[in-house]
C-alpha cells in the first residue's frame, strides 16, 4: 500500500508539472532556467521505478514516460525564441543595403522606392538595428536553450532505459508518447527503415558501430528517436541555426553496456514542394533577343545550400531545356558561370551542388533558353534551396558538409546520405527561393545608345576606308609614273650599249635631294665619263624613292668595277644633302647585275661624293648594308600599314588591295578578340609551362591558336590572290598613254585623272610603266573577283557578329572591349609589327649574304621602246624625222631646264658651304626649340592648372558661411570648451549637412536629403568625428604623491586600445552593442584602414587614425550619436584633438570639396580651432576644357618620349655629356621630372576610374 501511495503521489507531481508547463503565459511569468531545472528534477524523479518490483509496472512506466515526454517538449519549445529564423548577419550599413537591395530586386518589383520617404542608408540603418537587437535577444537565450537541450537529452535517454518493451518490438503504435523506441538486433535495425512523425531514417553503419570489425550484427541494440518542432540546438556560433526549417530529429542508440554512434546513415524529412509558377515565354522573351532567353532571378541566402530547379513544359515535343546561371548579373549566351540541361529522363529537374556556387550569396540570375517554337509553350518553374544539417556538440555548430542531399519533389521529401557523424541530431534547411522574371535585363537587344561606340567605330572605319580608297587609287595610278623607266638625257644617238641603273634613296628624315647628281661608272674596258642622273623631267630624288634610268654608252664597259657618284649641293635647305642607299646596275648585254652599296650621307658636313666598288650577284655584301636593305624591303612588303603608304617598286599588289586586306584583318581581329574577351574562370588555371614571371596555361594557348586561325588564313589567302592573279587579257593593250607598252589600267581610268604637264612630259619619255607580275605559279584572272568577294565577306560577317556581341555585353562592357581592342591595334601597328619586321630583316641579313639580283623588267622591251623613241627601228626617212624630233625635244629640254654636269666641290667650297649650312641649321634649330619650348610651357601650364577652377573661391566662401561663421548659430571660432564643440556639431554642422525641410518648411524628398543645405553639394560618404587620444601615465606631484597624469599628444605613442562605451575595458556587454548607436566610436581604427594622413594643427601634428563616429544616416540618428557621446563622456581628459571630416561633390561645377575642422584640446586646457576647405577637380577630362587638357596631356607624353629618344640617340652619337656635363645633368633632370609627372598622372587617372 505504501508503494502504491508513493506511485500515486509521484504521478500527481507529474500532473501538476504538466499543468504548469503546458501554458506559455505561465512560462513567461517564471524564470525559464528554474523551470528547466524543475522539469528535469520532476522528470527524473518520476522515472525512478524499482527494478525488483513483483508488480507489473509496464503500464505505469509507459504512462509516466509519456507525460514526462510532453512536459519536456513543452519546456524545450518555450525556450526557443520565436523570431530566431529572422536573424541574418548584418555587420554594417553596406551589408544591410545589399540584403535589402537583393530582396527588393526579387519580391519588391512593384514597390516604388522613388516615392518612399526613406533613402537607402535609412532603411539599412533600421534593418541593422533590428538585427542587432535580435542578436542580443538570441544571445541572452542561448544558455537557456542549451540547458533545455541538455535536459531533453538526459530525460530522453532515461526514458529509453526505463521503457520496457519486448526485445524485438517497438512502440510505434503507442498513443501515450511520441518518443519512438525500437529494440532488435543491430543487423535488423541497420537493414530496416525507421519512421517518425516527419522523418524516416536507416542506420547503415550500426553493425560497425557495435563492433569495429563489423561482426556485431547479432547483438541487441536499443534505438530511441525524438522529434522537436523547435530548434533547441540554436546555440551555435555562426548563425546557421537560423536557417533550420525542419523538425529536429534526435536519435540515441545503445547496447546493453554502452551508447554508440553510427558513422553512416541515411534519413529523409518532409519538405513540401511549393506550388510552381507558370511562365509564358512569349511574355518574357524579347523579339530582338537573339539568345531567346527567359530571365529569372532569386536570392541565394546560404552559401552551403544546394539549389534545385525544376522546369516542366506544359506541352509536347520538347525534349530538354538548357539553363544558364550567373552571379550578380544576368547570363548571356557567352557569359555565364555554368550551364546544364534539364531533360525528361531526369524528371525535368536538376540540383546544383553548393560547391558550384563558389561561396556566392545574394542576388543570383538564371535564364531558360526557349529557342524557336519552344517559346510558344508554357512551363512550370519550381526553385528551392536546401541542405542537410548535422549537429556537432563538441564544435557547437551545425555542420553542412557531412551529408549529400537529394530532392524528391513528387514525394515532398529530402533525402540525406550522411557520413562521419559525431552526434545523431539531424535537420534540413529548405527554402522556396523567391524568384522573378527579369523583364528589365534582356541582353542582345539593340539600343542606339548602348551600341553607339561600336556602331560609330564601324561607321568611321567604313568612311575612312572609302576616303582612303579614293586617295590610294590615285596614288596607284601615279605609281606607274614613279616606277617608270626613262632614258638619261645625255644619252647619244650613236650609243649602242645599254645599262639599267636603279637608284635607291634612303628612308631617313631628309634623305631626298633636289641637287644635281652626277656619276662616273667604270669597267674593265673604260668608263662612262661624267654623266648626270637626269631624264629631262624628274628633278627630285625623294625620300625612299626607287628611280630607274636607261643609260646608253658608245661601247661596252666590260665587267663593272667602280662607281663614283656626287651632287653639286644646289638644292635648297634640306633638299641639298642626299642619303644614298645603293645603286644597282644591270648590263643588258651580259645579263649581269651589279650592286654598289653606299649607305652614306652626301652632304657638305661630310662629303658630297662617294666611291663604291661593284658587288656582283655572287659576291657577299656587308652585314649593315644587307640589314638596312632587308629592313627597307620588309617594311615596304610585309608591314601591313607601312606598305600601304610606301608600296614597294616591284609588286602588282596595289595600295587599294593592301588597304582592303588591312580592313579584313581589323574586322577578323575584332571578332577574335570579342570571342574571348573576359571569359576567364574565377579560379587560376595551372600553368603548362612557366619561365620566371611568364606563365602559359592551356587556356591561353588555346585562345592564341584560335585567334591566329581566325585572322591569319583569310588574310594570307587574300594576299596570295591579289599578288598571284594574272591580269585579264582584254584589259591589256587598251592604254595609249605609254608608247609601245601596255599599262595596268585601261585608258578610261586615266581620263578621270586630270594629269598635270609634268605627268604628260614624263609619259612622253617613259620607256615602260608596266607593273611587273610575279614569276612562278599564277592564278586565273577571275580569281580577282573571288578575292574582292572575300573582302566583302571578311568585313561584313565579323562586323555583324561584333555588333551582336556588343548588344550582348551592354554599353559598359562594349566600351571597355572597344578601348582594349583599339589599344591592342595601335600597339600592333607601332610596336609588334615593327619589331617583327626588324627581326625578320636581321634573320634574312644573316642568312643571305649575297646581293639580291632580281629583275622583273623585260630588258629587251625597254631597249626596243628606247629605239622607237629615237627612231632607230624605222626606215631611213622615218628615222630622219624621228632623229630631228628628238634633237628638237632635247633642245627644248636643255633650254627649259639647263643643267650642266659639274665636278665635285673643292675643299674650300665644301668648307664654306658647310659653315653656311651649319648656320642655317643652328638658326632653324633655335627657332624650333623656342617654338617647342614655348608650346611645352603652355602645355605644362594647362596640365598644372587643369584641376583648378575659379569656382573654388565661391565654394569655399559658401562653406565658411554655413559652418565657420553662420548667422544666428554657434560659430566654429567660438569653440572654447568641449561642450561648445558638441553644441556646434549638434546645432550647426548636422542641420546643414542633413537638411530636413526646404526654405518653405516643407519636408524634403529623400533624394534631396542626400545634399547639404542649399541643395548644391552632394554628401559623398558619411561625415565622421575622429578623436585622437594620449595615453594615461603616472607622475609624482609634491604633497600628492603618485597620481594619474595625461601628457601631451605624441604621434608615436598615441592611444590605440579598444574600449567599451564610457571608455570601459573590454569585453563589452551585449546590451551595449545592441542598444547604443555609437558603439564603433570606442574602437580604434588604424590610419592604414582609412588611408589617413597626419595633419598638423596649431599645437602639434596628429595621426591619420583614431576613434571614429560616422554620421551616415540622417539628422535624427546623427543627433542621437552626439547625445550618446556626450552622455558617455567620449571627450575626456585624454582627448587631444577631435576632427570633423566630410567630403562634398558639386555636380554643377564637377568639383570635390574636402573639409576638415580640427578642435585641439591641449593638456593645459582650452581649445584651438583650425579648419581646411579644399575644393579640387579630380575628374579633369569633363567638358570642353577637360578634353583640351586631355589632348595636352597626350601631347606632353608624346613630347617626353620623343625627347628621351632624341637625347639617347644624341648621347650615343655625339657623346654630348663629356663635352657639356651641365647640359647632360639638365637633360636628365628634365626627363626625370617629366617621367615622374607622367607616372603620377597615370596613377591618378587609374585611381579615379
TrEMBL record:
It is a multi-pass membrane protein. Coiled coil: none annotated. The chain crosses the membrane at residues 452-473, 659-677, 697-722, 781-805, 825-848, 926-946, 1186-1206, 1218-1243. Keywords: Membrane, Transmembrane, Transmembrane helix. GO terms for cellular component: membrane. GO terms for molecular function: calcium channel activity. Residues 497-616 form the PLAT domain. One of its GO terms (biological process) is detection of mechanical stimulus. Pfam families: PLAT, Polycystin_dom. Gene3D superfamilies: PLAT/LH2 domain. It is found in: Membrane. InterPro entries: PLAT/LH2_dom, PLAT/LH2_dom_sf, Polycystin, Polycystin_dom. SUPFAM superfamilies: Lipase/lipooxygenase domain (PLAT/LH2 domain). PROSITE patterns: PLAT. PANTHER family: LOCATION OF VULVA DEFECTIVE 1, POLYCYSTIN FAMILY MEMBER. Belongs to the polycystin family. This is PLAT domain-containing protein. It comes from Dreissena polymorpha.
Amino acid at each position: 500500500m505504501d508503494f502504491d501511495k508513493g506511485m500515486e503521489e509521484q504521478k500527481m507531481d507529474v500532473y501538476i508539472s504538466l499543468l504548469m508547463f503546458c501554458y506559455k503565459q505561465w512560462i513567461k511569468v517564471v524564470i525559464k532556467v528554474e523551470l528547466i531545472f524543475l522539469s528535469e528534477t520532476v522528470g527524473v524523479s518520476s522515472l525512478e521505478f524499482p527494478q525488483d518490483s513483483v508488480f507489473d509496472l509496464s503500464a505505469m512506466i509507459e504512462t509516466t514516460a509519456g507525460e514526462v515526454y510532453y512536459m519536456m517538449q513543452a519546456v524545450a519549445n518555450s525556450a526557443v525564441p520565436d523570431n530566431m529564423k529572422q536573424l541574418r548577419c548584418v555587420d554594417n550599413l553596406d551589408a544591410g543595403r545589399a540584403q535589402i537591395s537583393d530582396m527588393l530586386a526579387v519580391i519588391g518589383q512593384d514597390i516604388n522606392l522613388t516615392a518612399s520617404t526613406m533613402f537607402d542608408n535609412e532603411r539599412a540603418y533600421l534593418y541593422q538595428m533590428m538585427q542587432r537587437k535580435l542578436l542580443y535577444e538570441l544571445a541572452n537565450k542561448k544558455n537557456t536553450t542549451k540547458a533545455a537541450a541538455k535536459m531533453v537529452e538526459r530525460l530522453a535517454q532515461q526514458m529509453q532505459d526505463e521503457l520496457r518493451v519486448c526485445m524485438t518490438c517497438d512502440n510505434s503504435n503507442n498513443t501515450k508518447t511520441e518518443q519512438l523506441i525500437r529494440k532488435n538486433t543491430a543487423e535488423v535495425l541497420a537493414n530496416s527503415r525507421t519512421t517518425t512523425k516527419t522523418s524516416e531514417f536507416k542506420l547503415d553503419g550500426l553493425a560497425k558501430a557495435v563492433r569495429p570489425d563489423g561482426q556485431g550484427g547479432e547483438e541487441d541494440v536499443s534505438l530511441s528517436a525524438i522529434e522537436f518542432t523547435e530548434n533547441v540546438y540554436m546555440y551555435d556560433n555562426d548563425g546557421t541555426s537560423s536557417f533550420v526549417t525542419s523538425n529536429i530529429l534526435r536519435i540515441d542508440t545503445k547496447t546493453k553496456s554502452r551508447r554508440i554512434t553510427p558513422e553512416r546513415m541515411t534519413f529523409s524529412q518532409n519538405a513540401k514542394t511549393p506550388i510552381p509558377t507558370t511562365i509564358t515565354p512569349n511574355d518574357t522573351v524579347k523579339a530582338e533577343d537573339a539568345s531567346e532567353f527567359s530571365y529569372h532571378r532569386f536570392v541565394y541566402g546560404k552559401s552551403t545550400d544546394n539549389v534545385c530547379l525544376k522546369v516542366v513544359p506544359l506541352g509536347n515535343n520538347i525534349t530538354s531545356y538548357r539553363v544558364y546561371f550567373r552571379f550578380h548579373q544576368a547570363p548571356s549566351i557567352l557569359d555565364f558561370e555554368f550551364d546544364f540541361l534539364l531533360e525528361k529522363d531526369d524528371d525535368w529537374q536538376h540540383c546544383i551542388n553548393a560547391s558550384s556556387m563558389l561561396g556566392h550569396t545574394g542576388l543570383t540570375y538564371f535564364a531558360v533558353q526557349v529557342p524557336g517554337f519552344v517559346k510558344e509553350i508554357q512551363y512550370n518553374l519550381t526553385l528551392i534551396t536546401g541542405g542537410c544539417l548535422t549537429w556537432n556538440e563538441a564544435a557547437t555548430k551545425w555542420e553542412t558538409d557531412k551529408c549529400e542531399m537529394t530532392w524528391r519533389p513528387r514525394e515532398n521529401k529530402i533525402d540525406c546520405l550522411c557520413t562521419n557523424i559525431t552526434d545523431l541530431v539531424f535537420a534540413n534547411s529548405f527554402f522556396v527561393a523567391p524568384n522573378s522574371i527579369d523583364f528589365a535585363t534582356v541582353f542582345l537587344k539593340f539600343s542606339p545608345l548602348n551600341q553607339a561606340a561600336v556602331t560609330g567605330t564601324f561607321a568611321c572605319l567604313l568612311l575612312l576606308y572609302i576616303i582612303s580608297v579614293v586617295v590610294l587609287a590615285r596614288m596607284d595610278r601615279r605609281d606607274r609614273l614613279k616606277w617608270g623607266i626613262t632614258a638619261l638625257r645625255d644619252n647619244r644617238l650613236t650609243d649602242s650599249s645599254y645599262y639599267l641603273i636603279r637608284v635607291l634613296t634612303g628612308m631617313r628624315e631628309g634623305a631626298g635631294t633636289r641637287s644635281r647628281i652626277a656619276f662616273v661608272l667604270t669597267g674593265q674596258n673604260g668608263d662612262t665619263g661624267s654623266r648626270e642622273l637626269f631624264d629631262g623631267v624628274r628633278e627630285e630624288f625623294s625620300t625612299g624613292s626607287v628611280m630607274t634610268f636607261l643609260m646608253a654608252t658608245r661601247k661596252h664597259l666590260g665587267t663593272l668595277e667602280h662607281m663614283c657618284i656626287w651632287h653639286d649641293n644646289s638644292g635648297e635647305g634640306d633638299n641639298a644633302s642626299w642619303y644614298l642607299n645603293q645603286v644597282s646596275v644591270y648590263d643588258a648585254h651580259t645579263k649581269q647585275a651589279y650592286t654598289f652599296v653606299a649607305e652614306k650621307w652626301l652632304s657638305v658636313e661630310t662629303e658630297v661624293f662617294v666611291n663604291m666598288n661593284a658587288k656582283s650577284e655572287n659576291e657577299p655584301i656587308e652585314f649593315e648594308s644587307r640589314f638596312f636593305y632587308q629592313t627597307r624591303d620588309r617594311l615596304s612588303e610585309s608591314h601591313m600599314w607601312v606598305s600601304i603608304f610606301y608600296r614597294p617598286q616591284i609588286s602588282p599588289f596595289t595600295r587599294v588591295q593592301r588597304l582592303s586586306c588591312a580592313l579584313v584583318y581589323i574586322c577578323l581581329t575584332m571578332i577574335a578578340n570579342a570571342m574571348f574577351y573576359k571569359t576567364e574562370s574565377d579560379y587560376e588555371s595551372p600553368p603548362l609551362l612557366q619561365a620566371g614571371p611568364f606563365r602559359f596555361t592551356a587556356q591561353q594557348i588555346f585562345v592564341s591558336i584560335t585567334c591566329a586561325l581566325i585572322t591569319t588564313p583569310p588574310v594570307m589567302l587574300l594576299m596570295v590572290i591579289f599578288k598571284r592573279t594574272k591580269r585579264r587579257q582584254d584589259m591589256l593593250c587598251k592604254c595609249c598613254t605609254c608608247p609601245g607598252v601596255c599599262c595596268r589600267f585601261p585608258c578610261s581610268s586615266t581620263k578621270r585623272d586630270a594629269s598635270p604637264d609634268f605627268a604628260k612630259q614624263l609619259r612622253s619619255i617613259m620607256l615602260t610603266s608596266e607593273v611587273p607580275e610575279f614569276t612562278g605559279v599564277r592564278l586565273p584572272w577571275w580569281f580577282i573577283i573571288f578575292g574582292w568577294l572575300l573582302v566583302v565577306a571578311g568585313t561584313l560577317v565579323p562586323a555583324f557578329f561584333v555588333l551582336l556581341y556588343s548588344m550582348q555585353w551592354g554599353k559598359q562592357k562594349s566600351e571597355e572591349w572597344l578601348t582594349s581592342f583599339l589599344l591592342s591595334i595601335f600597339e600592333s601597328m607601332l610596336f609588334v609589327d615593327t619589331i617583327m619586321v626588324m627581326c625578320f630583316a636581321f634573320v634574312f641579313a644573316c642568312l643571305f649574304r649575297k646581293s639580291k639580283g632580281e629583275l622583273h623588267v623585260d630588258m629587251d622591251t625597254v631597249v626596243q621602246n628606247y629605239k622607237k623613241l629615237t627612231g632607230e627601228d624605222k626606215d631611213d626617212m622615218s628615222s630622219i624625222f624621228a632623229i630631228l624630233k628628238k634633237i628638237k625635244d632635247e633642245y627644248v629640254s636643255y633650254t627649259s631646264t639647263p643643267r650642266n654636269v659639274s665636278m665635285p666641290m673643292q675643299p674650300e667650297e665644301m668648307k664654306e658651304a658647310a659653315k653656311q649650312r651649319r648656320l642655317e641649321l643652328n638658326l632653324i634649330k633655335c627657332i624650333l626649340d623656342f617654338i617647342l619650348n614655348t608650346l611645352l610651357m603652355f602645355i605644362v601650364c594647362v596640365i598644372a592648372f587643369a584641376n583648378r577652377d575659379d569656382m573654388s573661391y565661391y565654394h569655399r566662401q559658401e562653406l565658411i558661411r554655413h559652418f565657420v561663421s553662420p548667422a544666428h548659430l554657434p560659430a566654429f571660432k567660438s569653440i572654447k570648451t568641449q561642450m561648445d564643440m558638441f553644441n556646434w556639431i549638434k546645432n550647426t554642422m548636422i542641420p546643414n549637412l542633413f537638411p530636413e525641410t526646404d526654405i518653405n518648411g516643407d519636408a524634403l524628398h529623400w533624394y534631396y536629403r542626400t545634399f547639404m543645405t542649399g541643395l548644391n553639394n552632394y554628401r559623398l560618404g558619411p561625415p565622421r568625428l575622429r578623436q585622437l587620444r594620449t595615453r594615461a601615465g603616472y607622475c609624482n606631484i609634491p604633497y600628492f604623491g603618485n597620481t594619474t597624469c595625461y601628457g601631451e599628444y605624441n604621434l608615436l605613442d598615441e592611444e590605440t586600445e579598444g574600449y567599451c562605451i564610457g571608455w570601459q575595458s573590454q569585453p563589452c556587454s551585449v546590451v551595449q552593442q545592441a542598444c547604443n548607436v555609437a558603439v564603433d566610436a570606442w574602437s580604434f581604427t588604424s590610419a592604414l584602414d582609412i588611408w589617413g594622413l597626419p595633419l598638423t594643427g596649431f599645437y602639434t601634428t596628429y595621426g591619420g587614425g583614431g576613434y571614429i563616429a560616422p554620421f551616415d544616416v540622417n539628422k535624427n540618428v546623427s543627433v542621437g550619436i552626439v547625445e550618446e557621446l556626450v552622455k558617455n563622456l567620449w571627450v575626456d581628459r585624454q582627448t587631444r584633438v577631435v576632427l570633423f571630416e566630410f567630403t562634398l561633390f558639386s555636380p554643377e561645377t564637377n568639383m570635390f570639396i574636402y573639409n576638415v575642422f580640427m578642435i585641439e584640446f591641449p593638456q593645459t586646457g582650452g581649445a584651438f580651432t583650425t579648419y581646411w576647405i579644399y575644393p579640387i577637380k579630380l575628374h579633369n577630362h569633363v567638358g570642353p576644357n577637360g578634353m583640351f587638357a586631355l589632348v595636352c596631356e597626350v601631347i606632353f607624353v608624346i613630347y617626353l618620349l620623343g625627347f628621351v629618344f632624341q637625347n639617347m640617340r644624341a648621347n650615343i652619337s655625339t657623346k654630348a655629356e663629356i663635352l657639356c656635363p651641365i647640359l647632360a645633368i639638365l637633360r636628365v633632370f628634365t626627363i626625370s621630372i617629366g617621367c615622374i609627372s607622367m607616372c603620377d598622372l597615370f596613377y591618378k587617372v587609374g585611381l579615379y576610374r
